[in-house]
Design brief:
294 residues, mainly alpha
Amino acid sequence: MPLSKSLRYSLMAVFACLLWSSAFVAGKQALEYQTPLNLAGTRFLLAGLLQLPLCGHLLAPLRLIKKEFLTVLLVSLFHTVYLYSTFFIGLSWVNGAEGAMMIGVGPLASALMAHVLMKDDKMQPRLLFGILLGMSGVVFVSLASNPWNPEGLKEFFGLMLLLSGAFVSAIGNVVVAKRKGGLHPIALNSAQMLLGGALLLLIALPFEGVPALNLPAAYYGSLLWLATISATAFGIWFFLLSRVKVSRLNLWKFLIPLCGSVLAWLFIPGESPTWPSLVGMVLIVIGIIVGQKK
């Protein structure tokens, strides 16, 4: 029996979020060898190049930049330049599980921005209740990670950077959704990543210098995985944004703190779960189920 359109879209959203959740471990590993802005710029240039064969024509992203420069620039600034400069800088100041928790604010931010900026995407009571449940789970897990340690001020700013990135990215979601299929989603994603990656490397020059290239194979393995995540997950997400309401689609992003924390606890030395974090995860899952019900 063929899957319904709604179920297909849900499975695609889950797959994209599972990919994104692995970025916390790979990002922490790559930051051991490379500076934050140079890592972000290199990642997205590579991700944009990886998507070229899927754009219908190798020059499609460049043509899109020329034809729809303002749209591509706005999406690039929101989704790539600001979000991932704050992501990698913030991730270098906090542990992987904490980073996953702050990115978990994304669904609430997206629902709020969609409610304010889009006439046809107002929050319904069930959706709001699901988001509040998920957010309460994020708070539980954040408290479990004990961010107020002796290095609290630096860690606090790292968390605030990640939080601000979630809200700025939410505006980018609205920009994409408002086009409603007017642009080829893969070409748009490739174009905004190429432009964003180049901008990030230019911004990095006065602060971090030219990116180092003589680095271990472990770094390039993490970089390739990060670029693959971006090329695949963002391509799926931009496709879905033209077909599913922003607030409902972004509720699936509560899977990112859930899976991201588990992966961080498994693969990053010194990070482990506690009872509050496990309670938080249960709330996140319930929030997703409640919010997705019609």
